Amino acid sequence: MNWNSDQIRRDVRIWLETHWDPNATLHEWRNLLVDSGWGMPSWPKRWFGMDLPQGMLPVVFEEFDRIQAVGVARTGIRLLAAETLLVHGTDSQRERFLRKILTGEKIWCQLFSEPGSGSDLAGVTTRADLKDGVWVVNGQKVWTTSAHHADFGLLLTRTDWDVPKHQGLTYFVVDMKQEGVEVHPLKQMNGHASFNQVFFTDAVIPQDMRVDELGNGWQVAMTTLMHERRAANVLGGSRQTRPNEGSIYLEEARENAILTEPYTWYPQRAGRVDLALERARSTGTISHPVVRQELAKLLMMARCTEWTAARARAAQRQGQPQGPEGSLGKLANSTVARQALKVHTMTSGMDSMLEGSDSPMDGIIGEILLSVPAISIAGGTDEIQKNIIAERVLGMEKEPRLDQGPFRDVRKN
Amino acid sequence: MNWNSDQIRRDVRIWLETHWDPNATLHEWRNLLVDSGWGMPSWPKRWFGMDLPQGMLPVVFEEFDRIQAVGVARTGIRLLAAETLLVHGTDSQRERFLRKILTGEKIWCQLFSEPGSGSDLAGVTTRADLKDGVWVVNGQKVWTTSAHHADFGLLLTRTDWDVPKHQGLTYFVVDMKQEGVEVHPLKQMNGHASFNQVFFTDAVIPQDMRVDELGNGWQVAMTTLMHERRAANVLGGSRQTRPNEGSIYLEEARENAILTEPYTWYPQRAGRVDLALERARSTGTISHPVVRQELAKLLMMARCTEWTAARARAAQRQGQPQGPEGSLGKLANSTVARQALKVHTMTSGMDSMLEGSDSPMDGIIGEILLSVPAISIAGGTDEIQKNIIAERVLGMEKEPRLDQGPFRDVRKN
Amino acid sequence: MEFSFSEEQIQIRETVARFLAERNSSIHIRQLIESKTGYDHEVWTSLGRDLGLGGIHVPTEFGGAGLSYVETCLVLEQMGYALYGGPFFSSNLLSVNALLCCGTTQAHELIPDIVSCNQIATVAFTGKRAGWARLDAPSEVNKGRLNGEKSFVTDGLTADYLLVIANDESEAGRGLYVVDSNDSGVNISSLNSLDFTRRLAHIEFQDVPTTRLGDFNFETHSEFVNLALVGLANEMVGGAQRMLDSAIEYSGARVQFGRTIGSLQAIKHKCSELLMDLELAKSAAYRAAAAMSEQEKDRAGLASIAKAMSSDVFVKAASDCIQIHGGIGFTWENDTHLWYRRAKSSEVYLGDASHHREQYLQSLEP
Amino acid sequence: MEFSFSEEQIQIRETVARFLAERNSSIHIRQLIESKTGYDHEVWTSLGRDLGLGGIHVPTEFGGAGLSYVETCLVLEQMGYALYGGPFFSSNLLSVNALLCCGTTQAHELIPDIVSCNQIATVAFTGKRAGWARLDAPSEVNKGRLNGEKSFVTDGLTADYLLVIANDESEAGRGLYVVDSNDSGVNISSLNSLDFTRRLAHIEFQDVPTTRLGDFNFETHSEFVNLALVGLANEMVGGAQRMLDSAIEYSGARVQFGRTIGSLQAIKHKCSELLMDLELAKSAAYRAAAAMSEQEKDRAGLASIAKAMSSDVFVKAASDCIQIHGGIGFTWENDTHLWYRRAKSSEVYLGDASHHREQYLQSLEP
Fold it and tell me: What is the value of pTM for the model shown?
């Protein structure tokens, strides 16, 4: 069928004008929204959506922003969970989880990485064994965000050790509020504790919480990660600051605060290019030609990186699928951040011997020095990105694989 | 037995005083020298030597230098040939070749590398087949220095295709002055033609010109290369300029001229660090802080590289064997040369758009720009050096090999 | 601005690419290197006439195609890819830009013959040695007579006439002057250029009769230089792309130790890093092209970004390409050095990366 | 000079290495980080007394071991390797150097107590913020009273007394002054230092009674700074070596995709390049140590080489070590960041690499 954006704009506007109330409770409003289908218009009608094509979403969001209407809950990884269940879940799983994901009543976390399998995600060794009709889980996950808040987790486990590693994995929804699940904070070198380690000791999962077929875990995980990449490229949405008239905004702010707290240092991790020129001016180091060179390199790289991202987005708008080019951007961001680290060190001079309150800009500089090293590791190391670029973008020959055959026999940590 | 350096100094001095004649012909003198054993004192008595330990050689050379006496012929790869034959040759081969190597009457070349086997030397495919009692050679060699002057060549061939690649090689001495051997110059991007391509078409080698056993070619080649590395680290010897009284010096100069000609651009290949500071001064670019930074980086790196080499030599003097550390020095030289290229480009500005007579310093600058790219390739690429350092110095795990099993079945170009 | 090219633009690019692949192969380039003029007149004229590129960004009133500088830069990118060496850069780009910039009344007489490739012009604006940027390149006009010298003049030997930026000692000040190359007072000597495909000349003027075409004040001059920088930058990213393609192709074919060298991480990561640098430089070159055609306020800074990024990436790409080829990459027979020579030459032409990094920072000063 | 160490020197190095491996393990370091003083008094005193390092390069007449600065630097290299954080650097190195440099008549009273680790001294010579090199750090003496401030004073909080480089407004000029840390006019505030193992203080002096120990003119000051730079450089290459060792060890144990990550060229080549940089920096550090002990004419330049090379390599080594460890390398529990903090801090202490590159070039001027 053919979509008419004006029609859609009219419809959503009318609906909002009749229903939006900044003083409703978040719970009331979001349930209303979810039932209306305007919360997730691109989703199927049957599951709180309107079957709208992605291309029409901007129209809807514009209308929401116009009157500052609050949308469905988006923070954390809840939407990755929802999208994954939409593709791979059973109807009863969708019945049970989707609404409360969108209303924000339930918090989710992702349990993929393990101490022993970082770059090599398919090497997970957390095991799930079927005993007396339930799945019993043992093992350890790491780099989990908000696990201590989470009600449910997306869990990747190994259920078969006698097949090649990608084939022996199964994907579950696990109830985080149970005895067998222990959550410990994981502190980083910059002093923040944005992640958790999660220990499973005979944790229990009912059979109907298995997502997709036995041994299909890798495919399901790929769906989750694809949406994660996509989300990383979009962002925005509920980012803009809102006026504070209306109790619902306070509720929403509280909700966001909890789940965005772990990310406060991410801008520092990216090098804070935005501060570089001003720092050079305020420290007077802008008069040093050598500092000027490094600063110019940084600013040029940063602008070129933005333009390159814009080119990629434009290409997608023209219908080209978002492919491994994402790795190029990630690699560029690492390079920019490292150069920013260099420049901030130069402009701060001996002040970069300090951190916390004594460090310039109320500690921001110190936090940059201690956070940038993460950018070339988190979400796939630079080395992994370079492999992806070489093999998938440039089409260079793959490395010989040494991890084939039954997983049981593959060399491990 | 115990050696007395004063005794040796006396002996060689007496012998030189009685025999040295700057107006003898090079041929007369060198034959005298060879018979005396003072030409190659560390060689066995039976083969023109005196069985002196390496440690005593400086004493002898000092005496030669003192009265400016000409030594045995050292240019080119002749001595590698001699050392190889001393270890692996037959007596009749030594009889036939050693003397005329030392007297300089015969010129030698090394025929190892091939278009298809550069880094992977053991992958040579030039074949030698035994037909009617002689070895018939077909194939192509490359990067051969002085092949067009050479009387004989050290030839690495494949004689067995059904064993692993290192085991199917055999080493020969080949007569270069025969029909089946065609020599073409190989021109480099800097305009010089310092090397040759050598084509073998049914070239013939008598059986008694095989060096060491059938299938032992790799070990023999290693001996040659070991001496090549050692020579590269020593050099000097016949390098110093001599006064021109005495006809023998002219003869020697002519001899050297022929074989050192291909190497005139090697200093430019190394980046001519010696010119950098003076160029910055004469062009006035030394007043640019950015040029000063790059220049300082260069000079620092260069000095540190020298000191590091000195540390390695000192370690050897203390009895530690010269090992793969050579690769560190080679890698450092590449880094220095690349930085020198950068600095010379900066200091020359738009003048680096020129070469030949219009290029600064009578073309030296242009030749640097066009020669430096060779330093990270010739004699083993930087990538190969890094592998050697990682695996042999740092003891990191070797890469999985994909070239095992019968050479016939190994993937090739 | 939209960060993508239109159907039409992509078509122009592909037409030029196909044309040059066929008519400017490396075999052909090597023949031209040995030739007297150094370029193929037919190829140039059919680029200019048949493909209609002779005045691609020239207003139709002067016989041009009336397209923007974006299309021009797309064409230059392909010329860089193919290492095209004809007078397009000197005549159809630099000369046209100079004439359009100074807005001479004689545009109608001069531009059409350039557009139609009936005449070759070039601009003599760079002085001797490093200090290229000197506006005071010592060329002075007095009572219609030109004295002085210019250097690094592209195609100076093949041009029918010269457009000289010189200073009139009278209050007229700096202007653009036209000079007949064949005048007895014009002494043109060829320079031994590193880049075989872009010949340079040193030119001395002794009391040469000349006509002033128009003023060429500081603003005009920087606009002219910025156009040149951005054109050059796009040409350079094209050259860098060729080097990357060549490295990938060779590393996929070259087998050592029983595997293609392209399957080794050392080579893979070198190529991945190069692709990243190249994409960044391309973005800068495209962005600057748009800025020039839109006359954006900060175009000078964007031109410097484009030149700095492309200078670094082209040299890196050419050097890496040699390295990845190994020994063969250092030989004369291998084509890589032809691009390496262009890369090293373009790196410093009109200022190297460090110069333009400084320029860029100055452009940010309030 | 001979580019190798004697049996005795190698033995000293190994003794210190063994001692620190045992007494300064990272578990111990982490305990000290939480402690009040930040160092283990026993470890320090037995370094100074039992191992006799308290005055390793101090003339025997002052109770020292009378060895050269080369041995001192070998010790510092091992302290860097082990990330030793006691007062050795401030007291047994900087303070001893300051006292020896200015050749005070009170050397006999002061030095022996430092050598025997009965007293902790430190030198307050750096000013606030970037401009560390300022000889005019604003500390002035007038009629035996000190006013002003110093910053980035190592171990400023634990020192028993301070050696302050200050200027006497009378013609006496710049000199070395001794100040009692406990004087009411001395206001010492702890700085929140990035490097947990080297605590820094900011110190303000208000009308503090002080004694002038001796002159500290330009030559004296640069000799003192050069000694500090060279000591620091040797400490830094030690730290870099530890980072390389740690990276190699981890990459040999860590298995991904069925192979150790150390078998991947990406990791191998990173480590090979690091080893090369490290060997070059070590050569510079050793060479400079010899130059200082031999009072060679160009030692200032050599000190700058040592600091520039070691600054770059230590930061690179620590960063690469984090990268090679992957996610775990960014955690608090992993020890790498302890060295990374030292690396970043030492990188800029007494001038960063670019500063010393400029210094070196100036030292070459005729």
Answer: 0.95
